[in-house]
Amino acid sequence: MLLIGLILIPVFVGQFMLQRKAGRPGWLALIPVVNALEILKIAKRPWWWIFYQLIPLIGAIISVGVYREFLKAYGKGTMKDIILALLFPFIYLPYLGFSKDVQYIGVPERHKTQDTVSEWSEAIGFAVIAATLIRWLIMEAYTIPTPSMENSLLVGDFLFVSKFHYGTRTPMTPLQVPLTHQKIWFTDIPSYVKWVQLPQYRLPGISHVKREDVVVFNVPPKWLNEGIDYPVDLKTNYIKRCVGVAGDVLEIRNRQVYANGTPLKNPPMMRYSYRVITKEYISDKNMEKLGIDPDDIGYVTQPEQNKVEYMLHLDSAKAVELKSIPYITSVDPFPSQTGRDPEIFSRSQYAPWNRDNFGPLTIPKKGMTIQVNDSTLALYGETIRLYDHNKDAKVESGKLYIDGKEQTSYTFNQDYYFMMGDNRHDSLDSRFWGFVPEDHIVGKAFFIWLSIDKNAGFFSKIRWRRFFDLIE
Asked: CB–CB of 59/449 below 8 Å?
């Protein structure tokens, strides 16, 4: 919270001073959304352009164009000004606001079509360069598409992910269409080519991945990447909570996560599956009143007359609330799984685990050495073969070969992490596919800047209460 304050408060103060210079009430700069409308006003752009700014890619181009016009109203607007204002707004905006040499001069009227074309061409160029730099070095915008982190993060949350916390990674795949990930927008055409692959390094950050951090990472397994062997920096982005760092001994006992024998703090709105019995089907309207959306429903069935069974993903407070509803007969958590679940990592007889009872499992740490045998290869063999920077690693007949030589012991080349969703029974996470390598870490989920409820009515779409919520 302190860090977000150190960044946002100077930005608001800078805009406050700039608006006063433009003859506008400075306090309007302190109100989220209203301050964006004020920038549009000073830039002489229609207020409804704020909706354009929410559109991926198009929004980045329009936002940079608007921001440039905003700065031009104070005699700024060069490439240098744009980059400073976008990369370091907490420094540059206060500087402009308090500088006596910077005065409001207004935005000149645009008359010629040629000027407009030139203006937007420059804006697009500015947008691509500035957005690429910001996206790589400082922050990147993400959207939550699935309920695996509910209720901590909701489907429809738009959030910024910090690259500077853990240190940004240098590009591995340089030949790529700017501002894309795996494919060119709205097509299935790959946005990159593998002709040049660079070694990847991580720039210094201000912290390291810690237990309980909410982390965005490139999910490792090929089967979670559409079966495509993407370069590391282009693998599909996942967001989960880190429950184990390199060197930890992780264990789940009856749903409680332990690290090195100590129970971890549970997220306040963590969810599990509940069996809810009702006398009749719950209408969509009543589901909405109860705060239950379609993503919360695992299944619904009617085993007999006057009895309907739901499997709902709920936090404990919501479960207690449902028990007081007259037409709900019972609300009970599903019993913890017992026995071996063949879908759970590592799918081996040496690890008869399930999603509720798992481990103990030691998370690999750079420099950690293991003896090679059937049980260790069952747990770590795939990690060694696919992710630990070995050019020619093979596991055959219960033996490990590297560069054609059999290994009796193995030392790991990088750190690894264990990630889980807060919606514990509706999350495809490390319990199913294993460790997250350090070079797959993208950044730390920082704060929510917009939240849209896809299931709500038009006038209730925006979850205003979630604006600028810090992610914890």
From this structure: no
Q: What is the CATH number of the domain that holds 165?
A: 2.10.109
- Of the candidates 368, 352, 354, 402, which has an alpha carbon nearest to the alpha carbon of residue 247? 368
- Residue 253, beta-bridge partner list: 256
R_g of the chain, CA atoms, integer Å: 26
Residue type, 143: T
Q: How far apart are CA 93 and CA 99, in angstroms?
A: 10
Task: Kindly state whether residues 170 and 275 are assigned to the same domain.
Answer: no
Copy the structure tokens of residue 381: 């063999």
Predicted confidence (pLDDT) at residue 387 exceeds the cutoff of 80: yes
Residue 352, pLDDT > 60, answer yes
For 398-422, how does the pLDDT look when each residue is reduced to its tens digit (9 = 90+)? 899 999 999 999 999 999 999 999 9
Which residue segment(s) compose the domain that 165 sits in? 141-245+441-472
Give the whole-angstrom CA distance, residue 53 versus residue 50: 5
Reported as a pLDDT band with limits 50, 70 and 90, residue 115 is low
Handedness of CA 331, 336, 340, 342 (dihedral sign): positive
Q: Is residue 416 part of a domain?
A: no
pLDDT of residue 118: 64
| Domain count across the chain | 3
Whole-structure pTM value: 0.81
Question: Which amino acid is residue 3, in one-letter code?
Answer: L
Residue length of the chain: 472
**C-alpha span between 381 and 384 (Å, rounded):** 5
Q: Of 472 and 270, which is predicted with more confidence?
A: 270
What are the C-alpha distances in Å from 442 to residues 14, 72, 263?
30, 34, 27
Could you tell me which of 329, 340, 337 has the C-alpha nearest to residue 424? 337
Angle at 341 between CA 340 and CA 347, to 5 degrees: 90
- Measure the CA–CA gap between 457 and 249, rounded to whole angstroms: 46
Rounded Cα–Cα distance for residues 441 and 218 (Å): 6
